[in-house]
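F-box domain-containing protein
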Amino acid sequence: MHLLELPLDVAVIILATAVLVHPKPANVLAVHSTWFRIALPFLHSDLKFNSIEKLALFANGTSPLARCKYRTVQIILPGGAADTRLWTIIQRILQRCQGNEGESTVNSVHFTMNSLASDPTLHLIADALKTISPSSFTWTGPDPENNFSCAIVPAATGPLLTGIAPWSNLQHLSLSSISFSRCKGATLLTLTPFSHPALKSIHISQGVFLAPRSIALLALQLPALTRIQLVDVYQESIWGPRVRIADIEHEVAPGVVDPELGVWEGTRRIREIVTCEAKSERLIGGDRDREMA
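Structure:
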């Protein structure tokens, strides 16, 4: 049987798989006009880019995208994203994902890339991200997990938090290889508690300069949160102490917790939803020195 003679529901399954696994999915669409009509929405619902050149080509496109209820945007850039056009390009890409009525259809965004401290355009991160309001956002580095690096440099952290602040749809937030060294304890929180009523889970791994007070306030001021997972997160540099549950509980004080909740209930909530994990160990320094003392 010829592929064009297959029942529509079978053809949809085959073509949806083909555009996801084919190294050049546009070739699948070019076979036949029927295939183009069926497969285009699947191609546009899962946008994946692995080079600046591909990002720029898509950003400069003018034809409307196929109508999709939800879209996923993945940007995977090995090494440093040294092109100063990057955040302007990303903003144009996210703008192309707007629905017909100007409402973003982007449901999930996943960055696997480094930011560079020398990049003078990091402030544009905020403008790029304010274009959308996804339910899931992940930014991690391209390095292996056993390589403790900084993908989100201090100069990028502030614009990142500013950009995600208006996301009322956000439910899941995951940040890896991030430095909060330019963010005072309150900065992380004044942006977050009042803007994310639907936020259910936060995952932070390989983070440095994160104050325990920040986590305490997040847990106590965001009632929808059911999980905060900290993996290899440090109060200062990686040579200092990790963030531990006891440190977070210590921040539960009358000035932090809602009087109606009380210190006891505030402490209980932190124990229920916050986990602190140590995945990577050092031979010397930091917690290991403290434990051996």
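The first strand starts at residue 46 and ends at 49.
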